[in-house]
Amino acid sequence: MARRREPTARQMRLGAELRKLREAAGLKGREAAAALGTDSARLSQIESGIVGMSENTVRRLAANYACTDQELVEALAAMATDRTRGWWEEYRGLLPTPFLDIAEVEHHATYRYDVEFLHVPGLLQTEDYARAVFSYRVPELPDTDLELRVRHRMQRKVVIESPAAIPYEAVIHEAALRIRVGDRAAARAQLASVLEFSEMDHVTVRVIPFDLDGFAGAWSAMTYAGARVPKLDTAVRDAPHGTAFIDSEAQLTVFRTLFRKVETVSLEPERSRDFIHRLAKEL
To answer: Is residue 240 very low, low, confident or very high in pLDDT (cuts 50, 70, 90)?
Structure first.
């Protein structure tokens, strides 16, 4: 297969998972390559996502690595044969690659979790709110780039608004709901939007109030996307140097545990809706 100039996060993830299987089998690259009938340079390109592979190649590698997790093998084979060119491709070359990668991860997710402390989660943001967030960037974005980011964020909502919507749960701290990212009208519209989403059967919104005793988890903001098998889940965190896509099994376990901890201390969905209603009335 042809070399890719810029593999997506999903393509790199497939290669990384195959590398993990090889390392778990105790094989060096040259040994695995020889069993496949290729060279170590080609195998390295496969494991880095630079070169694609067929379903048959995935299954041969899994067999060579003595992988007995059939669910995982089937999921990896499906990733290798997926040729989806989703709506996010229209932004390739126009927005930074992580914008496209998060949309692709969401498209293939089986469920989504968000934990936010300073901003309303992106999937719940109104257009005005998102525009205010992106407008605060330093240096300021040109108007065309700003509007591209806003439009992209609004299109990402398809994962919770379409007929094929996935289960979605957001835990939002009171601080994120109170901070007026825009003006008073925009803040009121944003709270109304969160309430509207919370009424959907597949969406759960929970609030962590300021007056919760003993809460020290304000560092645990996250986006978590579930996959066909838990080993292929993805955690996403924003950092000063950019967006980090986290896929190690140990770290994924940590993020799942963190989410359950903040979920446990947050208000129940009905109480959370009442809480947001009260905040909206204060505006």
So the answer is: low
Query: Which residues fall within 8 angstroms of residue 150, CB to CB, at 6 or more apart?
Result: 127, 130, 131, 134
Tokens of 107: 């498209």
Closest CA relative to residue 283, chosen from 144, 209, 210, 177: 177
150 close to 134: Cβ distance less than 8 angstroms: yes
Residue type, 62: A
- Kindly report, residue by residue over 28-72, the tens digit of the pLDDT: 999 999 999 999 999 999 999 999 889 999 999 999 999 999 999
Which pair of structure tokens corresponds to residue 175?
């601080």
pLDDT tens-digit profile of 177-233? 999 999 999 999 999 999 999 999 999 999 999 999 999 999 999 999 999 999 999
Which residue type sits at 78? A
Q: What is the pTM of this model?
A: 0.93
Peptide bond into 139 cis (omega under 30): yes
